[in-house]
């Protein structure tokens, strides 16, 4: 165990670097920056590096050697020593504008959320789009970003009953985070809008538009422009 992170073995082909047990912007940045440093120094046996809200999973192929785990531990300690020594706290990725048609048929939960929070619908929209937010991780579905942290005024739990189908591009909130559903799928978060952006395309490289460490700026889009929006 290290003073600022803990390294544990998860089965015979994964190491977990745990930075914290609580969601925070500082921890999210540490995870995304740690994943970048680990990827830059990764030995050939590493198959994947997956940052999340509070940890980074390091997946590897066992090579049958008696000292593989020791070598992997050294690799983690070396990379994270650079992380501890660095004073750079900037997000490592790109800044991406995501247009959103809020409310109406695109965001059927917006009126109820506004009432529950004691806000107007316009205030909810303004708070949701008022600040740049971090992509903590991508998961649940290919290309689906978990983005945060939302202002405390927008802190709501998940829906009591998930929907079985949400339209592609649905923008939903819960637990001070936003998720964007890249394709039609079930979902248990509160639907406040929809984006025309194509978040995942297997023919594109990279296939996912957003990656952990990127920053998102939500931009309100008039409803009548949804079908006509094109990337800049």
Automatic annotation (TrEMBL):
SMART domains: AHS1. It comes from Alcaligenes pakistanensis. This is Allophanate hydrolase. Residues 5-210 form the Carboxyltransferase domain. The keyword RNA-binding does not apply. Keywords: ATP-binding, Hydrolase, Nucleotide-binding. SUPFAM superfamilies: Cyclophilin-like (SSF50891), PH0987 N-terminal domain-like (SSF160467). It comes from the Bacteria. GO terms for molecular function: ATP binding; hydrolase activity. PANTHER family: 5-OXOPROLINASE SUBUNIT B (PTHR34698:SF2).
């Amino acid at each position: 165990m290290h003073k600022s992170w803990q390294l544990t073995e998860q089965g015979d082909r994964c190491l977990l670097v745990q930075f914290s047990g609580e969601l925070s912007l500082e921890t999210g940045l540490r995870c995304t920056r740690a994943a970048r440093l680990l990827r830059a120094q990764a030995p050939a046996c590493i198959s994947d590096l997956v940052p999340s809200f509070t940890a980074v999973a390091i997946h590897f192929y066992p090579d049958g050697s008696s000292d593989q785990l020791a070598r992997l531990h050294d690799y983690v300690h070396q990379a994270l020593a650079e992380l501890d020594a660095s004073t750079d706290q900037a997000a490592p990725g790109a800044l991406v504008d995501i247009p959103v048609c809020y409310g109406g048929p695109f965001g059927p939960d917006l009126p109820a959320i506004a009432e529950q929070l004691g806000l107007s619908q316009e205030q909810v929209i303004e708070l949701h789009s008022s600040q740049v937010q971090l992509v903590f991780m991508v998961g649940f579905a290919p290309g689906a970003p978990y983005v945060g942290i939302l202002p405390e005024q927008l802190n709501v739990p998940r829906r009591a009953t998930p929907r079985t189908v949400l339209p592609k591009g649905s923008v939903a909130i819960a637990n001070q985070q936003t998720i964007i559903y890249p394709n039609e799928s079930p979902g248990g978060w509160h639907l406040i809008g929809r984006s025309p952006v194509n978040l995942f395309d297997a023919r594109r490289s990279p296939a996912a538009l957003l990656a952990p460490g990127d920053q998102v700026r939500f931009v309100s889009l008039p409803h009548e422009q949804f079908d006509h929006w094109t990337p800049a």
